[in-house]
Design goal:
11 helices, 12-stranded mixed β-sheet
Amino acid sequence: MKASFLVLLGTLGCAGPAHQIRHTHAHTTAIVHTRAAQFLNKLTPEQQTQAVAAYESPYRNRGFCYVLAHCKNDPAGIRISALTATQKHDLHMFLARLLSDAGYYKAMSIMHREMLLQEMEDAHRAAPQTITLTGSPAMPTWAPPKTRDHEAYYVAFFGDPRTDQHWAVRFEGHHLTVNVTWDHDHTQVSVSPVFFGASPVAIPEAPKAGYPLWRATEGQQLLRRELFLAQEILQSFTDAQRSQSLWPTMPGAELQGGTTMPLKAAMLHAEVPGVPSSEMSEIGKHLLKALTQSMADHVDTHIAPIQKMGHVNWRVWWRGDINTDDGEFYFRAVGDDRYLLEILLAGNFSVNSEHAANHVHIAFRDLTHDWDADVLGEHLHVHH
C-alpha cells in the first residue's frame, strides 16, 4: 500500500508526537469499530445482509450516487428509512464519531435539504405560473420527482468491522457520498472520494402561507464557505493569471471528478497551463489551503491526522462569474498530479428564485487512494 496524504503514521518525524498520534489514532479507530459493531448488532439478520457486503464487492468503488436519478438505480447498502428509531440512533452515533463536526453537519444538512425541496416543489405544483422551474440545456423541460425523502440515504459496509481488519464504509444518497477505507493494520485510512452538493445553496423567499420549513429557513446557506473561498482565490489572481487559467468550457452538472470511475491521470490536465500555487499571492495561497483542507477534514482528524493539504503543490483553473454570489462559475484545482477538487455553481434543476445560480456540486478525489486503490500507481506500472 502506497503512502498518501490521508494517513501514514509511521512517517511522522518526532518519536514523542508520533507515538501520541499513533495512540490517539488507535484509540479513535477502536471507538469507531465499536460504534460500527453496535449499529450492526442492532440489525436483523436480513438487514445485516443488506448492510454488509464483501470487501471485493463491485459496489464498493462504483460510480457515485449523487445525481438523483443515479440514486434510484440499484443502491448499495441499507436505506435509512428501513431502520427503526433505535437503529437510526446507533447509526448516527457511528457517523458522528467517524466524521468531524463539520463533516457530520454538512451531511445532515444535505439530507435535510430533501425535505425543503419537497416543500418547494409542492409549491410549484400548487402555483406553477408563479413558482416556476429551471431545467438545464440538456433537459429544458425537467420535472422534479413527485416525492423527496430525506431518509433515502444508504449506508454500506464492505468487509465486516466486527471481524475484519480491512473494511470500508460508504454513506451516500442525493448530493452526498462519503467513503472511508481502513487498511489491514489500521495505520492508513483512505477518505476519498467525497462529494457534497446543495440545491438550493441559498434558500429563497417562501410563500407567505404554508410551507413551514421553507419559511423557517429563508436566507440560510449551505456550502457557501467553499464557494466564497473559491471565488476569493480567483479574485486574488492577476489579469494574466486569470487568462492562463481560464478553463475551456463550462462543465455540465456531472463533474468529471464525480462520474469517471476510476479517474485517469490524463484527466487532471488541461489545454491551458493554469496557475501554480507557487505563483499565487500569499493571500491566495492561504485561501487555497483553507479550501482544500476543508475537503480533507470531513472525517475525524484523529482517524486521518496527517491531512496537511497546505504542503501540496496545486494548480488552479476556473471559468464563469467570480464576482457575484449567484453567477455560474467553475473552480478546478489539481494537487501533486493526484488530487482533484472541483466546484460548480450552476443555475439548473431548481425552483426559480431571485438567485440565478443556486445549485452547487463539489467533488474531491485522490487518484492514489480512491477507495484505497492506487490508480495512479497502477497506471504507471502498466503503461510506463
